[in-house]
Amino acid sequence: LIWQALSDGFSIVSEKWPxxxxxxxxxxxxxxxxxxxxxxxxxxxxxxxxxMGGLFFFFLLSVILRLAxxxxxxxxxxxxxxxxxxxxxxxxxxxxxxxxxxxxPSLTPSYYHLGFHFLASLLSFGLRVNPIDVILVLxxxxxxxxxxxxxxLIQRETKNTVAAFFGTLLAGFxxxxxxxxxxWGKYPALAGLMSFxxxxxxxxxSSLKESKRRRFLLSGLLILGILVSTLSHTRTLIVIxxxxxxxxxxxxxxxxxxxxxxxxxxxxxxGILSLGIYIQQDSLLNLALDPYLDEGIWIxxxxxVLSLFAFVKFPRSTYFNLLFLVxxxxxxxxxxxNLLPGFKNQTLLDRPFVEMLLYLPLSMxxxxxxxxxxxxxHEIITFFEKIQRPIRILVTIVFFxxxxxxxxxxxxxxxxxxxxxxxYDDTIALxxxxxxxxxxxYILIPATQMNVLPSGPSESPVGTDAGIWIPALxxxxxxxxxxxxxxxxxxxxxxxxxxxxxxxxxxxTDQSFALGQLLEKGDWYERVLSLPNAQLxxxxxxx
Amino acid sequence: xxxxxxxALLALLLITSCGSEPESTPEATVTPLPPPLxxxxxxxxxxxxxxxxxxxxxxxxxxxxxxxxxxLFANIYILADGPDGEMLFECQQSENFxxxxxxxxDEFLEGESIKLNIHAKSNDRLIALGVFNVQYSNLPIRDVxxxxxxxxxxxxxxxxxxxxxxxxxxxxxxxxxxxxxxxxNPTPTP
Lengths: 543, 190
Hints:
The complex is a heterodimer.
Chain A: H1 2-15, H2 17-41, H3 49-67, H4 80-96, H5 100-103, H6 115-127, H7 131-145, H8 148-158, H9 161-174, H10 187-208, H11 212-232, H12 235-254, H13 258-281, H14 290-293, H15 297-313, H16 315-333, H17 351-357, H18 359-380, H19 385-410, H20 424-436, E1 442-449, E2 461-463, H21 470-474, E3 477-482, H22 490-499, E4 503-506, H23 515-520, E5 525-531, E6 534-539
Parallel strand pairs in A: 1-3, 1-4
Antiparallel strand pairs in A: 1-2, 4-6, 5-6
Chain B: H1 2-19, H2 26-29, E1 37-38, E2 49-57, E3 61-68, E4 76-82, E5 85-93, E6 100-106, E7 113-120, E8 126-133, H3 159-162
Parallel strand pairs in B: 1-8
Antiparallel strand pairs in B: 2-3, 3-6, 4-5, 4-7, 5-6, 7-8
């Protein structure tokens, strides 16, 4: 699978290389900031050029593997992506017509995470490339860049490059999150995670600076980073607050007498366990833990074991990660109430975001833990110097082998069928539709209610097949109907007639309209386009 | 000085040899054209040009659907041999997805054999061919089975949420908006 992914990734690189190169440069700049901070922080350079070369190679390899996702992917997946495309396209148009300031207020009815869209529109505008391609490629490259800042954080804290690589490998491929989130079109959230990691790096490295002038400079950079991160995804602001509070509190805990330190550790672990059990019992929220408890259980268990060594050797960082975990779980449960207009029934952090985010504390704990374990061996077997080195190498190999085995065996680099709305036939159907339907045609497309919060499904419908791309790609108007709508019912027909529906689109997802019902009622719905996996019907049954 | 003279002589030789290249004979320049590509269905062999299937539209036009990974095959037309003789199918790339191509022409009957002679628009050369049976009837028909306790409704959104008094489907956590399908995910597309 991994060779196939590499081969497919190379094909995408050769096909879209200017765009891939530009995206690598943009995301590489972000990674370079982490490197620069780590590099300039100490006089004795603990990061060798060889390690940097290895990290760069890891990044490029990740880019190629991640690009395999674009094989047979025509548009960014799932329903969110239509909005990403619309906003990016409008920004490109605004850039072309120099009307950016006038366009901004009308872009979205309520606030939306615009950072990713700005970046995508700049690339699209600069390279004259279709925004669809830019979103697809930039998203994958962002995903490949996400593990890189983790390397510098662990390396600086532990001075152990091997452990830093281990943490980086975990952050990239240890669990199927955050990689799977591209299937949900979570591009702003991925850009937000990358920005958040950079903010974390700036904050961490500035806390180590002794020179007031440099601290001042880094504080300026930190404020800028927080702004960029919040612009990329609003919820990262909550995560940043959680991180800062966790770091400060971890500093206090570390300085406690030993007895209190162990007590606080016990309380934290009990908190994580009880919150985890509570979350696990909720039929919707429990999905947040799926990547780490279901298929990822062995990696998670390895991290749990390593965390013991992390605590012994790096108590503050371990406290930080445990506090971070507890706080994120709590934020998943705290409702916003009426604090934010238009966002009632939300919680401070939503389930998908938490699911995407948990890789970070876990991979940090994994990296810190491996460094702690290696130090432990170094200290405990000082009497047998001859076997010390082979044992440390063996331990390192075992942990890398476990993650690599999971990666090679199970990791899926391709787009999941769960969320691929646009299939081959849909692309042709949309072209046919654009060429043959009147400009004012009104088309019915399938939808369901968004279901993310424990409080129940949202009132806002979301599209469930390629029909949601009709307005963006053909300019025709659409309206939603529940995908389970019974087309044999006269009531349905009457309602459609009252609404002025002209056509019904049937894609090929599990939540497309029931084709059989439409065919059964041929006198009400006349088939005007028939492809193996996409159909269009004209409403002819209105009197 | 001697070395410089040698270099100058060499340069002169190079320049003159470039200029006095013997006139090439037609035999020397004409490379044999590659034979027309044999095409098949994409799910059998996703080569540079392959057939995705057939479709029909309301004007009784047959749609022939291709995938052309190689952009050389992007500008094509088809001369199709059918029971009623040769027919022209005009082809075009999908506007947003350039590797997807569809060709429009007269309808063929279900099960009829069609020989596709695919020509390049630029020089009318036959670049690919294949023989297929036109199939419309394998189109999928999916039906919804409603659960016993749920009344099927004419549930047009957003009417459901705002004003519909008709019973609606109970909130189901079976299909959350961000699914976590069984992992590893379904078999990747090759």
